[in-house]
């Protein structure tokens, strides 16, 4: 079987096959599996040598399967991290909404009480108004802090979305690689069957 036929049979590039043949000759220098066919003038590999190449490429296929398994594990880890981050964001949003609701109710009640107060009561409760002013000041500070927290949460949320987009992209790339590996495996199995059938007839 000449080099071009081997490339087609195993669905490998010429460079890959040349490297494999060079390794074959280096490991088995006395076998004489590589020779130049006087009829076709092409470099030809004997059946025993082709069988060794088949073993070599099967080993390469096994290494691809190991890479596929590792990629699947990485996808599962990324999914677990995303799920944990989403849970944390959801909890923070619930806590913030409850706290904001309580503050709004408190401010509303204070405002209604002030509206119901009479002019005579206002004069008698200057000290109370002063205390309320301090509370309002504290509440303003809290609202300001909450605004900063909101900005921080929005920034973190944006980062998480970017990370999720990047993860989705990585996931799509990994899934594409998995599909490519499966396609290579199917083509290899089909060509392996064709090779075994051809080899059987050659030996006969």
What is the H/E string? HHEEHHH
Largest sheet, if any?
2 strands, antiparallel
Provide the β-strand percentage band.
Answer: under 5%
Q: List segments where confidence is low: pLDDT < 50 over at least 5 consecutive residues.
A: 63-75
Tally of DSSP β-strands: 2
- Cα-atom radius of gyration: 37 Å
Going across the major beta sheet, what is the strand order?
1-2
Coarse structural class? mainly alpha
The helical percent reads: over 70%
Separation of termini?
A: 15 Å
Shape: rod-shaped
Mean pLDDT: 79
How many DSSP H or I helices? 5
Verbal overview:
There is one protein chain. The chain has 204 residues and is mainly alpha-helical. Helix content is 86%, strand content 3%. Strands 1-2 form a two-stranded antiparallel ribbon. Strand 1 (34-36) and strand 2 (43-45) form a beta hairpin. Helix 1 (3-10) packs across helix 2 and helix 3 packs antiparallel against helix 5 (126-203). The longest helix is centred in the C-terminal third of the chain and has 78 residues, at 126-203. The radius of gyration is 37 Å and the shape is rod-shaped. Residues 63-75 have low confidence and may be disordered.
